[in-house]
Design a protein that fits this description.
Layout (H helix, E strand, L loop, with lengths): L1 H27 L4 H24 L1 H13 L4 H8 L4 H11 L5
Helix pairs in contact: 1-2, 2-3, 2-5
Length: 102
């Protein structure tokens, strides 16, 4: 029950906004579809991993959510730090994510 709650919270506060923000940015900046697909898959797969981490350490989850909300970190930074398996996809997307949106 509690793990399902954390999974729902992670989806609402991290996964869905990350997919929207990163996906829109990659599409707007013309990233190849393969890169967008890899990042989207990574973000989706990160949900249970993040839920597990934050259920074991709720303060970490709250701090991460606050940092995302306040703009002191980014979704890609959180995914890189918390889900090492996302690193290759995020590295491939970095040239697009680092560009200013026009």
């Amino acid at each position: 029950m509690l793990s399902q709650l954390f999974l729902t919270l992670v989806n609402m506060l991290v996964v869905e906004p990350a997919q929207a923000e990163i996906g829109n940015r990659l599409a707007k900046l013309g990233a190849p579809p393969a890169i967008t697909k890899d990042v989207t898959s990574c973000v989706t797969a990160a949900a249970p991993i993040l839920a597990q981490l934050y259920s074991e350490d709720p303060v970490r989850g709250v701090v991460t959510a606050f940092r995302l909300w306040s703009g002191t970190t980014t979704y890609s930074a959180v995914l890189r730090a918390e889900v090492p398996a996302c690193e290759p996809a995020l590295l491939a997307a970095e040239p697009y994510l680092a560009r200013p949106a026009s």
